[in-house]
Structure formats: structure tokens, C-alpha cells
Amino acid sequence: MSLPLFLVPSLDVSVLDGPEGHHAADVARLRVGESLLLSDGRGGMACAVVAAVGRGRLELSTHQRWYVPPPAPRLVVAQGIAKGDRGELAVQAMTEVGVDEIVPWTAARSVARWKDDRPLERWRATAREAAKQARRAWLPVVSPSVSTSVLAARVTFVLESSADVRLSTVDIPATAAEIVLVVGPEGGVAPEELSAFTAAGAVPVRLGDTVLRTSTAGVAALSVLNGRLGRW
Question: Are 166 and 208 in contact (CB under 8 A)?
């Protein structure tokens, strides 16, 4: 069984307290002599042993540190804002399979509309917890929501069920610093949005012969890219 991971601002810590300390001491009930992982979310990792336990806090003895380089190219998913908890489900699963950045996209067919930052903060909290679950060294970025015109400048591929090319066979830019994939909301990508993306150089791609939900399409696409890029 892998060691539990806790996120810290810096690896130079001897006491784990706050929300992470509460989870470690009061929820996970770690005891003296047990080991755990620490991550700063920016590639820094450490292995520590519990030296003492208090209410909502642990005293730690760190005995090993290492650094995990950032993946290249970065995998970015522009996720169409969906209704209910589908967006958060997508964020959770995409984080677990290795997405490096998630960009909430205000699509024409998005039923839900964000009126404040609370949905964004929920996405960020979901990504944080999923990164801990997956024992990730790098915490994915969850960027502020963007419009189609802003997003078009970054897009590499657009998931579109009617596309002629499969993601499993499409040419991947050899020197790209990032691969940006667009996933539409429940109603898919509108024709005018697809035109804007392709005019900016994006390539429409499909996964297979079936249509996936917005909450699972990005996960499936990331799995294909992980295999093709040798990340898995």
C-alpha cells in the first residue's frame, strides 16, 4: 500500500498542522513511527516519519527528499462548463490521470453559467484532493474561466464526434510545450466555436465511434495521450 500524501507550502517543515495536520492526525489517525509523503505541489517530494502526535498536528522527522521534473509537454484540457457536479467529476478524474492544467471554458452550449468564483474554488479544491489521492508531485493548475476567443489562441485539438481523425493516430507536434485539448459541455462544441478553433490551427479529433459524457471524455483523451507520449 502506498504512503499517504499531504500537501505543504514548503518541505522545510517539522510540524504538520492546519487542515492537512487535522486530516493526518484526526482522520487518517497516523501514529508515531508511521511514514508519510509530503509534496509542495511543485515537484518537491519528501518522505517523513511521525515523531509525535497532537490534536490536529503531527511532529515529523524528514529523512528523504527528491525532485520530480515537470512533465513535457504539458497536457492541458479546456473543459466546457457543465451543469451539476459533472465538471467536478471531470476535474477529479482528469487530475488522477495526470492533467497538468484545467481551463474552465464558457462554451455557447454550457447550460451552467458561473456568476462568481465559488465554482472555480470548488474545482481547485477537487483537483487538490485528487492530486493527493494520486500521490502527484505536481498539483495541476486550475485557471480562471475563459471565452472561446481567448481559448482559440492555445488550442491544439478539439474533441468532436464527427471528426475524421482519431486522437490515437493524429500527428502530435514534436516540439510543442503543451498540448491543449478542448472538451465541449453537454451539448458539444457549437459549429461557430469549432470554426473559430480550426481557423486558429486546431485539429478536430475523435476518440472512437461512441459519444462520451463531458465528464468522461477528457479522461479518455488524456489516457490516449499518456500512452502515446510514454507517460504511461
Answer: yes
Angle at CA of residue 185, ends 184 and 189, nearest 5°: 40
Q: How far apart are CA 117 and CA 52, in angstroms?
A: 38
Where exactly does CATH 2.40.240.20 map onto the chain? 5-67
pLDDT in tens, 2-55: 899 999 999 988 999 999 999 999 999 999 999 999 999 999 999 999 999 999
Strand, coil or helix: what is 79?
Answer: strand
Per the CB < 8 A criterion, the answer to whether 93 and 134 are in contact is no
Q: Are 37 and 193 within 8 A, CB to CB? A: no
The CATH code for residues 5-67 is: 2.40.240.20
Instruction: Dump pLDDT digits (tens) for 157-170.
Output: 999 999 999 999 99
Residues of the chain with CATH 3.40.1280.10: 74-229
DSSP code of residue 151: H
Residue 165, amino acid: V
- Answer whether 102's CB lies under 8 Å from 139's CB: no
pLDDT band at 58 (very low <50, low <70, confident <90, very high): very high
The CATH code of domain 74-229 reads: 3.40.1280.10
Query: 201's torsion region: left (phi>0), alpha (psi -120 to 50) or beta?
Result: left
Strand partners for 47: 37, 64
Q: What are phi and psi of 145, to 5 degrees?
A: -65, 150
